[in-house]
Known about the structure:
Layout: H1 4-12, H2 21-45, H3 47-58, E1 66-69, E2 72-75
Antiparallel strand pairs: 1-2
Helix pairs in contact: 1-2
Amino acid sequence: MDNVVVDALSLMFEGDRGENPEVMCSSLIQSLSLFYSFLKEHQKGDPRCSEILDRELDIPSNGGNFQIYRNLLFYNPRGA
Protein backbone atom coordinates (compact mmCIF):
# COMPACT_ATOMS: atom_id res chain seq x y z
CA MET A 1 0.00 0.00 0.00
CA ASP A 2 1.34 3.43 -0.94
CA ASN A 3 1.49 6.17 1.63
CA VAL A 4 -0.05 9.17 -0.13
CA VAL A 5 0.97 11.65 2.57
CA VAL A 6 4.63 10.62 2.52
CA ASP A 7 4.67 10.72 -1.28
CA ALA A 8 3.13 14.20 -1.34
CA LEU A 9 5.50 15.54 1.31
CA SER A 10 8.55 14.08 -0.43
CA LEU A 11 7.52 15.80 -3.67
CA MET A 12 7.70 19.14 -1.87
CA PHE A 13 11.45 18.74 -1.51
CA GLU A 14 12.22 17.30 -4.93
CA GLY A 15 12.51 18.99 -8.26
CA ASP A 16 14.13 22.09 -9.60
CA ARG A 17 14.77 24.94 -7.17
CA GLY A 18 13.96 27.33 -10.02
CA GLU A 19 10.26 26.47 -10.09
CA ASN A 20 7.98 29.44 -10.14
CA PRO A 21 6.26 30.43 -6.86
CA GLU A 22 2.77 29.50 -8.10
CA VAL A 23 3.82 25.89 -8.71
CA MET A 24 5.58 25.67 -5.35
CA CYS A 25 2.58 27.11 -3.47
CA SER A 26 0.19 24.81 -5.28
CA SER A 27 2.31 21.80 -4.40
CA LEU A 28 2.50 22.87 -0.75
CA ILE A 29 -1.26 23.44 -0.49
CA GLN A 30 -2.00 20.03 -2.01
CA SER A 31 0.45 18.36 0.37
CA LEU A 32 -0.98 20.11 3.42
CA SER A 33 -4.48 19.08 2.44
CA LEU A 34 -3.37 15.44 2.34
CA PHE A 35 -1.54 15.83 5.64
CA TYR A 36 -4.57 17.32 7.40
CA SER A 37 -6.90 14.61 6.09
CA PHE A 38 -4.41 11.96 7.32
CA LEU A 39 -4.19 13.70 10.71
CA LYS A 40 -8.00 13.89 10.99
CA GLU A 41 -8.32 10.13 10.31
CA HIS A 42 -5.60 9.36 12.84
CA GLN A 43 -7.25 11.49 15.52
CA LYS A 44 -10.62 9.80 14.91
CA GLY A 45 -9.00 6.39 15.42
CA ASP A 46 -7.05 7.36 18.55
CA PRO A 47 -9.14 6.95 21.72
CA ARG A 48 -7.33 9.70 23.66
CA CYS A 49 -7.62 12.23 20.83
CA SER A 50 -11.26 11.35 20.25
CA GLU A 51 -12.05 11.80 23.93
CA ILE A 52 -10.38 15.21 24.11
CA LEU A 53 -11.90 16.33 20.81
CA ASP A 54 -15.41 15.35 21.90
CA ARG A 55 -14.95 17.07 25.25
CA GLU A 56 -13.62 20.26 23.66
CA LEU A 57 -16.44 20.33 21.10
CA ASP A 58 -19.06 19.97 23.85
CA ILE A 59 -17.55 22.44 26.33
CA PRO A 60 -14.63 24.45 24.95
CA SER A 61 -12.06 25.18 27.63
CA ASN A 62 -11.22 28.84 27.73
CA GLY A 63 -7.51 29.36 28.07
CA GLY A 64 -6.70 25.64 28.01
CA ASN A 65 -3.91 24.00 26.09
CA PHE A 66 -6.12 22.45 23.43
CA GLN A 67 -7.54 24.20 20.40
CA ILE A 68 -9.82 22.91 17.67
CA TYR A 69 -9.43 24.17 14.13
CA ARG A 70 -11.39 22.62 11.27
CA ASN A 71 -12.29 19.65 13.47
CA LEU A 72 -8.62 18.94 14.20
CA LEU A 73 -7.23 18.92 17.72
CA PHE A 74 -4.11 20.98 18.37
CA TYR A 75 -2.08 21.26 21.55
CA ASN A 76 -0.61 24.62 22.52
CA PRO A 77 2.04 24.37 25.23
CA ARG A 78 1.80 27.08 27.83
CA GLY A 79 4.07 30.01 27.15
CA ALA A 80 4.59 29.12 23.49
